[in-house]
Amino acid sequence: MLIIKSGYLVSVMELHGKVALVTGAVQGLGKGFSEILLQKGAKVALLDINESGGKDLKAAFDKEYGPDRTLFLPCTVESEEQLKDAFQKTVEAFGGLDIVCNNAGIIDETNWEKCVSINLNGVVRGTYLALQHMKKQNRGQGGVIVNIASMAGLGPLLTAPIYTATKHGVVGFSRAMADVSSLCDYGVRINVLCPAFVQTAILSSLSLEETAGQFAGLRGVAEKLLEQFGVLEVSEVAKNFLKLVTDESRNREALMVRKEGASYVTFRQVASQLPSILAPSL
């Protein structure tokens, strides 16, 4: 579908009948992303480690959107085998795959290796599996991947250094893979969403001693940051997620979402010394 936006003709992905897969889908942002996709007519595979919550959410979605629009698959993004199986079951159930949202994430500065495993490694696994099913070279139909980072992926959140590192990794990995997709003509757009603080369960992890660990003493700093930036509602972030999904002119974008609005991030052009073939869109 073509629409006129800011004086330009823009191609917009029509979501009716499209197939989406969302990780960490049972609550918070994952639930919000899943619901807005359903509202626009997509079918959604809901992946989450929370089995009871997943069954309850599917039942609620079945009542609202019909029983054939969603599929709940218990899965941890830490397991290559479980994630691979979930992708395959999604394709078998819905007949394809068009949209993937790698959303699952935690804050845990105490068990920092688990934080890296879920937040960064899980995004890498999810992106690679999405490309296997979606890229044209594998007879896929193309599509879009949106990886969920954070404003902590654009600047340091000193109360959560490991979380910061993982989200910086998500931003860098997503931008690099978007260039790979363009250069190799995969037909898959890859973007990254970077919201500020959001009203979800993960927000409390900033100050809880069991998750903040040695940085729990900095809870006063976290409180000041919350006062400075405010707290977004899930629905505000979901609307901007939809922009990255539907606007087919957007690839390799990082969209920052704050209370005062959303804006695309402009990165310093540090790759100008590289041969242009290695960085075709920089």
How does this model look, in words?
- Helices cover 41% and strands 18% of the residues.
- The chain is globular and about 50 Å long.
- 44% of the residues are buried.
- It has 282 residues and is α/β, with parallel strands linked by helices.
- The strands form two sheets. Strands 5-4-3-6-7-8-9-10 form an eight-stranded mixed sheet, sandwiched between helices.
Order of helices and strands: EEEHEHEHEHEHEHHHEE
Structural class: alpha/beta
Amino- and carboxy-terminal Cα gap? 28 Å
Could you estimate the helical fraction of the residues in percent? 40-55%
Tally of individual helices: 8
Low-confidence parts: 272-282
Biggest β-sheet: strands ordered side by side in the sheet: 5-4-3-6-7-8-9-10
**Major sheet size, sense and barrel closure:** 8 strands, mixed
Global mean pLDDT:
93
| Rg on CA atoms, Å | 18 Å
Question: Assembly state here?
Answer: single chain
Instruction: Tally the beta strands.
Output: 10
Q: What portion of the residues fall into strands of 2 or more residues?
A: 15-25%
C-alpha geometry: globular
Please describe the structure with a list of short key phrases separated by commas or semicolons.
alpha/beta, eight-stranded mixed beta sheet
Brief synopsis:
The protein has 8 helices and 10 strands. With 282 residues, it is α/β, with parallel strands linked by helices.
Summarize the topology.
Blueprint lengths: L1 E4 L2 E4 L7 E5 L4 H12 L3 E6 L2 H15 L4 E5 L5 H15 L4 E4 L9 H23 L8 E6 L12 H24 L3 E8 L13 H4 L6 H11 L4 H13 L7 E5 L2 E4 L18
Parallel strand pairs: 3-4, 3-6, 4-5, 6-7, 7-8, 8-9
Antiparallel strand pairs: 1-2, 9-10
Helix pairs in contact: 1-8, 3-4, 4-5
